[in-house]
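Changelog entry

Holo records now carry the ligand SMILES as an explicit input line rather than a separate metadata file. Below, a converted record for zinc ion, shown in the new format.
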Amino acid sequence: MWGVVPAGISGVMVKVEVDVARGLPSVGVVGLAHTSVAEARWRARSAIVNSGFTWPNSRITIGLSPADLPKTGTSLDLPIAVGLLAATSQIAKLGSNVSFIGELGLDGAIKPVPGVLAAAISAQRHGVSTFIVSAGNSREAREVEGLEVIAVTNLRQLIAVLRNEDAGEEVDQFPAMIDDANALGDFSEVRGHDVARFALEVAAAGGHHCSLLGEPGVGKTMLAQRFVSLLPELNQQQALDVTSVHALAGRIESGHGLLRRPPFIAPHHSISAGAMLGSVRNGVLLPGALTLASEGVLFLDEAPEFDRPCLEGMRQPLEQGSLALMRVGQTVIAPARFQLILAANPCPCGQAIGRGDGCTCGAQQKRRYLQKLSGPLMDRIDIRISLTRPTDAHLRMSAGESSDVIAQRVLLARDRAHVRWTNESWNLNAQAPGSVLRSSYPPDAAGQGLLERAESRGLNPRGSDRVLRMAWTLADLEAQDQPNNDHVATALSMRGGGFE
Ligand SMILES: [Zn+2]
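Structure line, unchanged by the conversion:
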């Protein structure tokens, strides 16, 4: 008999074995069961008796394995009850391709539990073909392809289903996909900011992390929010992963449809390291901002104001796309494959723009402010631009291109990159290692010459790699087969942004 318990962002299959032996009547649970699981025996007994079945007057042992996995919650109620009914021959034995998840009410009702989508994904991967859930959980579970989901409302109905006397509950298909792309605004509403608009198009096309430097109120947040509208919709696997994580965090209700748009997560700089990185409680992951942003965008406004542990904690996700959270005797790997948009004021007071007349910060204070972002973090940020406040003339200009128009170009550029990287372990230019680009994917002769001249004037190797990655994205956006002189020149202009 198989059940599933939440563990990290996925579920872990738990084998439930029920042994009924002669002896003094008792019910024992073996296998690192938390109180909530140990109490399942009493819920199961009441549910079985109140549904008209028999609870034997025997020595009952309920074994849960793997034994070293801490088990918590009420999701094992159902497999425990079904295991008892099978062990006492009240129903036929079941194959290992059937799994159950659900909480039992004392009256035999089968209630929804959290984390069913993640559990269903794990069950399907584990070879389960029939997944039996509470009717309240069935919409989530039915999103997983290759899994027959049977929804039931009470134990009596479940037994009828197992005896082929009932087909379970009819459940509507998932509601139409959720599309909150418009909620964050459209690029047609942006006046001026030509450089930033273009930089964000390049960032979207190549998957590049991006930093925006500019005085308070210049429009950094407004631009970052609209960046999401340039990104393609999530594929099915990404949508399942994103929805699982957001359901686990309680950000969407059980039964909510799949999230199809890349998430946009913008934590305030006062966020704690725990909320930024996530935590583990009773074996269950509480996703942090880095994980909630996975497959989407993480926007850090006033980035130098974040606590150092928050900024340091981003190194591993930026390198590996995931994050290891350690608790006593247990490591949970959380996904954290986000695109970073980082914004900063030019100095602590925010006024060091142009000639910086209004700035009241000392030289050392100013240096320390941006230095908080230096090193390994900034190495990962290909595109770095400075924003200037749009002039009155800009603000009188007609509306710019809509997000849809730009997103089309982004999609075509990404397609070109996908084709080029077909046989590689990455598919976005931003993920291409510099060594591979330098040895096998150089720009044309003129572009290469320009890059070498920049190197001889002090462009360091990491900076040179970033230029090369951007140049490829610029070539993809123009449907060119190789970066040329112009692409390298443009990439060179987008790499400093006040940070070096
Ligand atoms: Zn200042």
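Spot-checked after migration. The two ends are 61 Å apart (CA to CA). The domain at 181-401 is CATH 3.40.50.300 (Rossmann fold).
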